[in-house]
Amino acid sequence: MLVDLDYFFAQCEELRNPSLKEKPVVVCVYSGRSEDSGAVSTANYVARKYGVKSGMPIFLAKKKLENVDAAFLAVDDQFYDEVSGKVMNILRNFADEFEQVGIDEAYLDVTKRTHANFESAEPLAKMVKIELLNQQKLTCSIGVGPNKLVAKIAADENKPDGVTIISPNRVSSFLDPLPVNRLIGVGTKTLEKMQNMGIYKISDLARYDVQKLMAVFGRTLGTYFHNASLGLDNEPVREKGEAESISRIATLKQNTRDLNIILEKTDELCNDLHGRILGEKSTFKTVAIIAVTTDINTHARSKTFENPSNSIELMKKTVKELFEKFLTESDLEIRRVGVKLSNFSGLGKNQAQITSFFESG
Ligand code: TTP
Ligand code: MG
């Protein structure tokens, strides 16, 4: 079973201010550079009707909601994290095995308690929804399937406030007609490649020669796509350990030693990484910069903190310090810049640990 909270950050905002419910609510990550610079973190379904979505620049969302009484709010990580912690504690009680996969998402292995009977999965899913509504006043969407892959796609099928149960004998009829990008791992680039190969629906992928898929996407990914198209997945539901690192890198418009030009680019990278760690509910202890100099050499500098954080200010401040220092150590111009976060904690860790960094961050 995959449980995904509906329009999570925006629903949290409605929770503490119910008068927002009727109007478009847009939760934003303001970059601070100018009044409306930054990106939309998420929006409620009222705002989505106007075409507002996650990742969109704030100014564009404002344009779509011109002349509409809409609420634009800044993200409040601490509050969402508190709500998330409470939600996860409720969900955990419904699972034989539990795996949180994001701030608002978790897999529940319910095989034992349903005796692997899909007919008892539906009342169980409804109970989960009722419990979340009663205890936290929150709605979610639930997918149930024979494995994580199918459960995830099922949960996306009826949003918001939906329940979709796909028993083993319905897997292929459910997946076949869906567009291939409903599979995890098929992003914009892969979608384009697949469409050029004549693959539009999951059934097209299922029929495609697996050797040819491997030739195009490599052995691992080719095999994954083949199995995924058939609804095959053997990943167990289990609490995850710590992720390794995430990074973003970009080429500067011009080679430079000008700190302002560098920071303008790294700020964008930081905003991007910040959105990602918020989405995954993780926190970092190490911030690193990457500098590719005009001699094509790659340099890295890093700083590790005592306490985990998800603070964008700390991220940007550290990146600035590290670049300042790097520029004094090298006299070469910089061509590409990157930011890397590592030493994660978060993901399903206990609540005290998650909230303790906010004060220090
Ligand atoms: P999602 O579950 O992907 O989105 P959602 O809960 O807002 O909407 P849905 O009803 O479709 O499930 O992400 C969970 C939260 O993560 C979301 O509320 C805000 C945050 N997030 C970002 O900050 N940036 C992003 O690009 C995405 C996708 C999510
Ligand atoms: Mg969600």
Write out key terms for the chains shown.
42% helix; DNA polymerase, domain 1; 4 domains; disordered C terminus; MutS, DNA mismatch repair protein, domain I; binds magnesium ion; binds thymidine-5'-triphosphate; Alpha-Beta Plaits; 361 residues; four-stranded antiparallel sheet; globular; 14 helices; alpha+beta; five-stranded mixed sheet
Radius of gyration, rounded? 22 Å
Report the CATH architecture of the largest domain: 2-Layer Sandwich
The tally of strands reads 12
- Unreliable residue runs: 347-361
Structural class: alpha+beta
Q: Note the beta-strand portion.
A: 15-25%
CATH homologous superfamily annotation of the largest domain: DNA polymerase, Y-family, little finger domain
Give a summary of the structure in a few sentences:
This protein is of the alpha+beta class.
Structure commentary:
- It is a single chain.
- By secondary structure, the protein is α+β, with helices and mostly antiparallel strands.
- It folds into 4 domains: 7-77, MutS, DNA mismatch repair protein, domain I; 80-170, Reverse transcriptase/Diguanylate cyclase domain (Alpha-Beta Plaits, 2-Layer Sandwich); 176-229, DNA polymerase, domain 1 (Orthogonal Bundle), CATH 1.10.150; 245-342, Dna Ligase, domain 1.
- The protein contains 14 helices and 12 strands.
- The strands form 3 sheets. It has a 5-stranded mixed beta sheet. A 4-stranded antiparallel beta sheet has the order 9-12-10-11. The chain has a 3-stranded mixed beta sheet with strand order 3-2-4, with helices on both faces.
- A hairpin with a 2-residue loop joins strand 5 (97-102) and strand 6.
- The longest helix is centred in the last third of the chain and has 22 residues, at 259-280.
- The protein is globular, with a radius of gyration of 22 Å.
- The model is unreliable at 347-361 (pLDDT under 50).
- Magnesium ion (MG) is lined by residues 4-5, 8, 104.
